[in-house]
Amino acid sequence: MNENILLKEKIPKLYLKFVIPAIIAMVLEGIQGMVDGIFLGNFVGVNAMASVNIANAYLQIIIGSSMVICTGTMSSLGRALGGSNAKKAKDIFRSAIIALGVISVTILLIGFFFSNGIARFLGANDVLLSDTSRYIQTIALFVPIISFKILFGFIGRLIEKPQLYLAGTVSCLVSNMVLNFITIKILRLGVVGAATATGIAYLIGLIVVIRPILSKKTIINVYDGKFCWNDFKNLAFNGSSEGVTYVANALTLFLLNRSFMNFAGESGVAAFTIINYIGNFVTLIMFGISDGISPIISSNYGADKMERIRKTLYTAVIANLVIGIGLFSVFNLFSENLIRIFVNDNKPVIDMAVGGAKIYGLCFLLSGFNIIQSGYHTALGNAVASIIIASSRGIVFVAIGLMIFSVFWGINGVWFTLPFAEIMTFVCCLSILFHQRKQEISFVFAPSSLTNRKIK
Fold first, then answer.
1. What sections of the protein cross the membrane (predicted)?
2. Could you give the maximum distance between any two Cα atoms of the chain, in Å?
């Protein structure tokens, strides 16, 4: 690269080149996450769909462990490239490849050989156990493919190919839909067919995103650099908040699935599955904005361009707020129409999901702000603040909410747990803001006159 456009291009143009493709890619990822559920719900039954939702906690672990490495690598690489340290960047990338390879193979072996125990632990009862176990065992075979598709796709943003991850995601989604139709509708392979279709689709996506990384002309490629233990520790620590986010998602699924199972059996899990699919779709729009601004923030932080960071953050926060209000309204007005995409002939499940959607929709009013704050701190290498935010959203206050509200409000209390977690996380974000303003550290609402700070 002769000139790093992340450091010089106007912020609105960077949004068009980096953030918009990231949003589209994340939305398509959300649709892809629904594909298995849509096909299984329509052609097999709600129990198969519920089984996949329980198994999704294992998939969250796959993606979460990958995101620890991928997000930490993005942050470290962006700051290294922003500081014109190409050698450091190459070593960071080589360290990431080796670390991700070891982690993904380990998760593969655990999922394949202990799928039954994992399914039982995640909350599958006797009705759902077999399908849940088979889905986990099948998707486990594709763990390295899923992991490296994410890593190589994300790196494309730092080598000024932000459209690459979008192209890989489109290829993955289209393939998944076609393969799901073949394996579920035609071949009648059920959950095994769904998992196989998803795995092969990720392979096709990997083939798309890996191409520039295989060229020695690319500043970041698979040939250069060496493994460095310190680089690995730094990138793993920087990305740990994203790992917490996905582990928190897995834990949230685990806790809520068990709660809905206790209150309403398989129908309760099915209703939550539908709302969770739709909710994830909405949340991924907000994560798309966070992911899209990440290379802009990390690169400009490495180059000491704090004013550009401030403008980028203001725009992201406002965008997520507008999206949150709009989607909260849609969720309340058109929830039944959305739910019938997944299930059209099970009135108890539909009624339960419609009632839950009106409570669940409150999440969107604050989740966008919380997501931006977590991603912002990760991009700057401030892992501690990001971990606090991520764990608050998905671990601490989810557990507290379930213990309190389900006792007094029953199943409605379970639905209210996630909005409660977002409210409390928003309070945590404000506390971090207040603490950082006292220390004169740049933050989203900090004045533009702050002095620049060199990255370590």
1. 14-35, 55-75, 96-115, 135-152, 164-184, 190-214, 235-256, 268-293, 313-334, 354-372, 384-408, 414-434
2. 63
